[in-house]
Amino acid sequence: MSRPPINPDKSLAGIAVDPQTLERVVPESRRPDGSVRKQLKIRPGFTPQEDVKRFRGTRQAQMDANALPKGHIIGWAPPPTSSASSGASGTQGLSKSAKKNAKRKEKREKEKAETEAVPDNWEDDDDAPAPSTSTPASSKANATTPPSDKSKETDTKDEVSELSSKLEKLETKD
Hints:
There is one protein chain. The longest helix is centred in the last third of the chain and has 25 residues, at 149-173. The radius of gyration is 39 Å and the shape is elongated. It has helices at 58-66, 86-92, 96-116, 136-144, 149-173; strands at residues 16-17, 24-26, 29-30, 36-37, 40-41. By secondary structure, the chain is mainly α. It has a domain at 1-68.
């Protein structure tokens, strides 16, 4: 005959089988102050209220076994997932507002990427051609019509000279 486990399974009420006497007991435990509660014997046949199972008739038990998960729709099958539509499936389950927020976030990220292209220190390279030193209107013009590499250098030098002359004019007016 095999011996019962050293740490037997407890019921909801905390009743376990004593491995030595094979009686049902509430094992001794330690209180928060350090004192020990005595082991309590449970009379044969007694079932505490916590351990009493709810009565279910055979039909009710059968219905519970056949019950569908909460929120399940009868006859509905999830659509097959394909690897071709993996990019679109990320936004498919989102609500309208979530989709709008995602688009706004993408737009903000694009704007950040554009603004990060502008150097932090404007005074580092005065001799080097810098298209970012131009005004916003001229930078838009450069973005719409990209000149060739040689003409790009001359255009930026021209823009720099124009801007410096405009600055001088503004300084003389004050």
